[in-house]
Each structure stands twice: as C-alpha cells, then as structure tokens.
Sequence to fold (149 residues):
Amino acid sequence: MKFQKLYTVDDIAMMTGLTSRTIRNYLKDGKLKGKKIGAQWRFTEEDISALFTDKSFENEVTVSKNKMVIDFLEAKEQSKVSICSIVDYPCRDRKVVENICQEMIEQVNSYKNKDEIKFSYQYLKEEGKARFIVIGIPEKVIELLNKIK
Fold:
C-alpha cells in the first residue's frame, strides 16, 4: 500500500512564498481544499495543483516570489554571507518536479534554524518549467540545489 504525501499549510506557504495566514484565507474562501487531521489541515498534491490553476493565485505567487528576490537584492545590512539562486527547470509535466520539490521541503524542514534558508517553488505551465528560488547561507543553498538533478 502506497501512502499519499500530505502537505501542511506551512509547506504550501514555503513553496509559494506566501504567508501561512494567506494560505489559510484561501482555505477559508474555498479556493484551497484539504482535510483536517487532528488540529492540522493536510493537502494532497491534487489539492495544491487545483489551487495553482487559479490565475489570481498564480499571479499572487509570482509577485511574492519576485518580492523575495527584490528584498534580497535591496537588503541594507546582512550579518552573514548570503546567496540567492533561481533555477528554471524545463519540464512539461508537473509530476516530474513534484518529487524534487518534496525532497527540498523535507530538507528545509529538517533544518534547526529555519532563518538560514528561504525556499520557493512555482510550476509555470505555459512556459513549461518549474522555478525554484533558494536564498540563504551558502552551505544550505548548495545542499538544497544538489536535490535538483
């Protein structure tokens, strides 16, 4: 029996660059479907894919991702060496990159200090590619980028 991977609100927020509160608002408004397990909402890949087909959602994610990069470029003070990497991964089938994305989320979730890394993912259907944005200290960024094959 194969278990289906379930994502949390925080996982979706990490993938999209949106806040957890924004994701919860999508849930409340009925734009995002999921199942409540205990006290937490859980979402399948199909639930997330349905949300990504909403054009207004896709536009909001794009704006959020662009803001991540602009914030990095315009940072006035930094206490650590930091890098920003944008990877465009050509693929016509979203399923091809879902496993890569899942591995990256699991890696980010394993870090004790979540402030050392920012990760974002977006599948751009019309362009036939997935876009990964990774910002953080070099060791963590390199570790995450090594998940992309």
Notes: Residues 9-145 form one domain.
